[in-house]
Amino acid sequence: MQEAEVRRLDLGYFVRPPEETGTGRPQVEPCLGYLLVHPKGVLLFDTGMGSSPEVDAHYQARRRTLESAVADAGASLADISSATNCHLHFDHCGGNPSVADKPIFVQRTELVAARQTTGYTLPELVADGRYEEIDGEVEILPGVFLIPTPGHTDGHQSLVVRRSDGAVIVAGQSHDTASHYAADLLAGTARRAGHPGPLPATPPWMARLQEFDPRLVYFAHDHSVWQP
Q1: 60: left (phi over 0), alpha (psi -120 to 50) or beta
Q2: Alpha-carbon distance 52 to 178, whole Å?
Q3: What is the pTM of this model?
Q4: In this predicted model, what pLDDT tens digit does every residue of 198-223 receive, in sequence order?
């Protein structure tokens, strides 16, 4: 039987201004999506950056169209059977209107926040579409799970794909970088070993992700990939 395959999508980049980086310097960050080619369907995870004059002025975004990014991954928008987003900020759901006729899996908490909170996202990106609201962990395809990973937003979720050679996780913006993910894992190791501390707080859901024994973890704004 064909194995599920995760392919990364280059959806452009933006410049995070100094007041948002915590370093006092601007930072150029990629906008990455992922295509899951599964025997039971093709799933799109994150759809790129939405656009408005205010967003474009603030972030100097340089976009690649969802259609061209998917084509580079060897597929077309017509091939996509369903979609999901790690969360619904403008830089993760910009292409949702292009797949509005497909089921889009979202945590109920996230959709409520996106539709009811002023300034949360660009409203037109989530106004319509076949949103399939879920609460908590769900297996959406055989061996493919959406796992709540709150933190960046209350309704943030990550994708877990089981394969014979080990699980692949698309962690979205659960962490800004692979190094941040690794740091949280190491802090958890120290805590379990009884290290006297003080130790940094780590998200409780990290343990759930590690139960899948991941061999690769991908992120939304970092080209680096975590490996054990």
Answers
A1: left
A2: 30
A3: 0.96
A4: 999 999 999 999 999 999 999 999 99
